[in-house]
Specification:
Distance between the termini: 17 Å
Keywords: DNA-binding, Transcription, Transcription regulation
Protein name: AraC family transcriptional regulator
Helix content: 40-55%
Structural class: alpha+beta
Radius of gyration: 20 Å
Largest sheet: 5 strands, antiparallel
Pfam families: AraC_binding, HTH_18
CATH superfamily of the largest domain: Regulatory protein AraC
Number of domains: 2
Strand content: 15-25%
Number of strands: 10
Oligomer: single chain
Length: about 300
């Protein structure tokens, strides 16, 4: 089994001087890159797609979502996903680097938008027909500018259109109550920092106390913070991130079970296997077999 592929912006068609942004109809995107995007893969960029017709399945980090007209998906760098789509699928897609957005605005970051603020927040937004038409018009504005022959200040106009698109999507996203982690208040800022610290350290730091120290708070305070906001303990958040990486390595990698355990910071594979089963109800090998069997049935 090959390691999972990580797609880079440079693998897609260039547009004059590199501007770290790409936009296309989903049909053309699928035709040009079918082999790369219909198998599990990652990106090192932000990706947003709006489907306007057709149906299918979209799996993101082992969560399966239905694809229907009006489905909007938001993917952050590093997430694993793949599609199973009908032949009549249509939509619009764009993606960009963090720098493309963040360098254009001194007062905000792409991570300020609710769908990117935390990976605990939903990766999908389902629009009704009027809002689907409204957002399709926004996506088409981006596509027209990206595909146009007028190259004067193209990047500047694209970043402005991108900001407007994200603002409108954010309003729709918040109106549907899609956020698990709010971006308001000191607590949410601490949760965002905690998530970032876990992402950076989960292979080596497993104890809530280590993260509490990094955040300059007591373990009791950290526990109140996560339980009150997410109804999850710090240990659960840390373990969920470890298990997600374990699942990725199990089904997309080539390492042995003992090597996966070691790479995730567990020298005792038996202990890691017990931990995995406690949280998933399956042993690591059984999970990998079940996942591959499920994929085979839908291919």
């Amino acid at each position: 089994m090959k390691s999972i592929n990580v797609l880079d912006l440079t693998e897609f068609e260039s547009h004059g001087d590199p501007i770290a942004f790409h936009c296309n109809t989903f049909t053309r995107h699928l035709q040009a890159h079918h082999g790369a995007i219909t198998v599990p893969h990652k990106h090192n960029f932000f990706l947003i797609v709006l489907f306007t017709s057709g149906s299918g399945l979209h799996e993101i980090d082992f969560e399966k979502y239905r694809v229907t007209p009006g489905s909007v998906f938001f993917l952050s760098p590093g997430q694993t996903h793949y599609w199973e789509l009908s032949d009549d699928i249509e939509g619009l897609i764009f993606f960009h680097s963090q720098e493309f957005f963040d360098l254009s605005f001194t007062d905000r970051s792409v991570y300020d938008f609710p769908f990117f603020y935390s990976q605990l927040n939903s990766a999908v937004l389902q629009l009704d027909t009027p809002d689907t038409h409204k957002m399709a018009a926004r996506f088409n504005e981006l596509l027209t500018e990206y595909s146009g022959k007028n190259t004067f200040m193209t990047a500047q106009k694209l970043s402005s259109l991108l900001s407007l698109t994200y603002i409108e999507l954010s309003r729709l996203y918040l109106a549907q109550g899609q956020m698990e982690v709010s971006k308001t208040g000191v607590h949410s800022e601490h949760l965002r920092k905690l998530e970032k610290l876990i992402e950076e350290n989960f292979r080596t730091e497993k104890s809530p106390g280590a993260y509490a120290n990094m955040l300059h708070m007591t373990v009791r305070h950290l526990n109140r913070l996560t339980q009150g906001s997410l109804n999850k303990s710090p240990t659960q958040l840390i373990t969920e991130r470890i298990l997600l990486e374990a699942k990725r390595m199990l089904v997309h990698g080539t390492s042995s079970l003992s090597q996966i355990s070691y790479d995730l910071g567990y020298e005792d594979y038996a202990y890691f296997s017990r931990l995995f089963k406690k949280w998933t109800k399956l042993t690591p090998s059984a999970f990998a077999q079940q996942y591959q069997s499920g994929r085979s049935r839908i291919q």
